[in-house]
Sequence to fold (196 residues):
Amino acid sequence: RQKKLRVALLIVDLQKDFFHKRGFSYLGKRHADKEAKPEWEPPDKQIKRLINNIIRLIKEARSRSERVPIAYVTAEYGSAYAVKNRRLLKDPKASMPCRPSTWGASLIDPILQLVYDSKSGRPHPDEIIIRKHTYDGFFQTELLEFLQRHQIKVVVVAGAESNVCLMRTAESAALYQFMTVILGDCVWSHIGDLGN
Fold:
C-alpha cells in the first residue's frame, strides 16, 4: 500500500494593500488615508474570482478527514527590520506597502473572517499566520519549522503576487525538497499576464 503524502496549503499576501481599492497598489504607490477603513470589495471581476477560488480551497482543505495545515503568509515591510526589502535598500524612506500594524497590512476581510476561530479568537488548529519581511515566505520565518512539524511533503501555493512573493516562496519550498504545486486559478499579479 502506498503511503499518503502530507499536504499543506500556503496562502500568500492576500492583504488590503494589494487587494483593496484604497490599498497601496491601487492608489499609485501611496497609502490610503489613515482614518479610512472602507469595507473590502473586490477591485475587479478577476480578483473576485480569485478570492472566491481561494476561499473554496481553504474550505476544502479544512473539510478533509486528515486536516490540511494552512499557513497564511503575509508581508510586513519596514526600515526597522534587519532584513530590508529591495525597495528600502535603494531608498530607506521609500513608500512601501504593508507597513507593520497598518490597515493595509491586514488580511482582506473575506480571508480574515476565515482565519480566526470565532470562539478562541486565534487561528484555527493546524493553521498559522507567518509574517515575512522579504519576498520569500521561508526567509527568517517559522514557515519551514511549521511544515516540518506537520511532516509535510507537498505544498500547494495560492495568492499573490505570482511574479514576486508567491514565486519566491514557491521556489524556496522546492529548494527545501517539498513537492510544490502552484494553482493557476488561485494566483494573481497586478502585472496582467504574469498572474497566469
User: Anything to note?
Assistant: The first helix runs from residue 16 to 19.
